[in-house]
Amino acid sequence: MKQTFIYKEKFAFSYCYPAIVFIVLAVLSWFFKYGIAFKNLRLLAYPNSMYILAFCAVLFIVYAFYKYSSAKASSKNPNPIEAEDNGITFPQGKDKRIWVAFTDVKELWHKDDEDEGKQVIIYTNNNDRYEFSEDRFASAAEFAAFAEIMNANCTNITNR
């Protein structure tokens, strides 16, 4: 009973929001010659505050570019989730694949959140947490089939 599900990483424009905020703060710091202070304590004077804010903006731009490139690579070559008789194998990171036996799952949660959508969350016996989001599956039917397999095969669940 080996079943394969396509699981892709997605890019959201919200990864760019912190970079935009730090760019705006750096420009305001440059234009109005602001420093960074808290109450009466001056943390950074004018030129240094602009440099730090610009550096933070660059870091967040690099992070957003990394997430975009990994989502692009994932769409070209998706790492599937493979459900077998005794466990599941799924991607973790770029090249790492993890195998979890159904008997090692101690908690199984189904989350339906307005912001994050539907998710299946599992906790293993050694307290590792893994999330599977519906929007990363190829279709809602595949996510439903995956959730059904998890419900049917996970036997040592403590939160039921």
Q: Please, could you describe this protein's structure?
A:
By secondary structure, the chain is of the alpha+beta class. It has 2 domains: 13-76, no CATH class; 79-153, Roll (PH-domain like). It is built from 3 helices and 9 strands. The chain has a 4-stranded antiparallel sheet with strand order 1-4-5-6, with helices on one face. It has a 3-stranded antiparallel sheet with strand order 7-8-9, covered by helices on one side. Strand 7 and strand 8 (117-124) form a beta hairpin. Helix 1 packs antiparallel against helix 2. The radius of gyration is 22 Å and the shape is elongated. The two termini are 25 Å apart.
List its traits.
3-stranded antiparallel β-sheet, 160 residues, 4-stranded antiparallel β-sheet, alpha+beta, PH-domain like, 3 helices, 32% strand
Total count of strands: 9
| Individual helix count | 3
End-to-end C-alpha gap: 25 Å
Radius of gyration over all CA atoms, rounded = 22 Å
What would the principal axes of the Cα set say about the shape?
A: elongated
Decide which structural class fits the backbone.
alpha+beta
Largest sheet: 4 strands, antiparallel
CATH superfamily of the largest domain: Pleckstrin-homology domain (PH domain)/Phosphotyrosine-binding domain (PTB)
CATH class of the largest domain: Mainly Beta
**Low-pLDDT ranges:** none
CATH architecture of the largest domain: Roll
Beta-strand content estimate: 25-35%
Strand order, largest beta sheet: 1-4-5-6
Mean pLDDT: 88
What is the CATH topology descriptor of the largest domain? PH-domain like
